[in-house]
Amino acid sequence: MRRAGRRGRQAQEGSPMENGVGQEPGAPEPPAAEGIPAPRPSRARPRLVFHTQLAHGSPTGRIEGFTNVKELYAKIAEVFSISPTEILFCTLNTHKVDMQKLLGGQIGLEDFIFAHVRGETKEVEVTKTEDALGLTITDNGAGYAFIKRIKEGSIINRIQTVCVGDSIEAINDHTIVGCRHYEVARMLRELPQAQPFTLRLVQPKK
C-alpha cells in the first residue's frame, strides 16, 4: 500500500480508497511445483479498521473495506441501522460542525469519523439585494450540497436561521439533491435580483 505519512486513503467519489483487503496473515502458501523454487511470500496487506460515531451521539462502531465516499456512507449506515441518505457529511476527530475538520481527500489511520445526519428541515425566504449571497457551498460527494462558509456582513449572514453545515435541499421547491456544489452555486448566482426566493434547508441533527 502506498503511504504518505500517516495519511493514505482517498475519500473522494470516483477515486479509489485503499480498502485493506488482501491475503490474510498466516494463510498457507500453495505448494511449489517439482523443480521450481517456491515463490517468495507476498507481504500481507493489513486490514484497515476505522472507528465511527454519529455526531449527535451514539455508541462507537467499526467500519472497514470501503473504496469511495458512497461505500463509506453505506458502511456507516449499516453499523447504525440507518439509511445512507440520512448522512449529510462527515468530520474527522470532532463531533462539531467544523468545516476545517471536514472529511476530504484522505483519512489518516488514526482518524475517528463522525457522521452528521439529517435533523430538522427549515424554509427561509431570501431577497437577493446584491449579486453575491455570501455563501461558500461544497458537497459530500454523495448527492448533498451544503453550506461551508458564510461571509460576514453578507445577505445570508443577516438571516440568523441559516447556518454553516445546513444542507440545501431545494431552491424555490426545485430539488437539488444529486447536484454538485458548482451546479448549486450557479443556480443561486443566476437568480434575479430584488425577487424573493425560498431555500429549503436541512440542518445536522443536534
UniProtKB/TrEMBL annotation:
<feature type="compositionally biased region" description="Low complexity">
    <location>
        <begin position="20"/>
        <end position="37"/>
    </location>
</feature>
<dbReference type="InterPro" id="IPR056814">
    <property type="entry name" value="GIPC1-3_GH1"/>
</dbReference>
<feature type="region of interest" description="Disordered">
    <location>
        <begin position="1"/>
        <end position="43"/>
    </location>
</feature>
<comment type="similarity">
    <text>Belongs to the GIPC family.</text>
</comment>
<dbReference type="InterPro" id="IPR001478">
    <property type="entry name" value="PDZ"/>
</dbReference>
<dbReference type="InterPro" id="IPR036034">
    <property type="entry name" value="PDZ_sf"/>
</dbReference>
<dbReference type="InterPro" id="IPR017379">
    <property type="entry name" value="GIPC1/2/3"/>
</dbReference>
<feature type="domain" description="PDZ">
    <location>
        <begin position="123"/>
        <end position="190"/>
    </location>
</feature>
<dbReference type="Pfam" id="PF00595">
    <property type="entry name" value="PDZ"/>
</dbReference>
<dbReference type="Pfam" id="PF25083">
    <property type="entry name" value="GIPC1_GH1"/>
</dbReference>
<protein>
    <submittedName>
        <fullName>PDZ domain-containing protein GIPC3</fullName>
    </submittedName>
</protein>
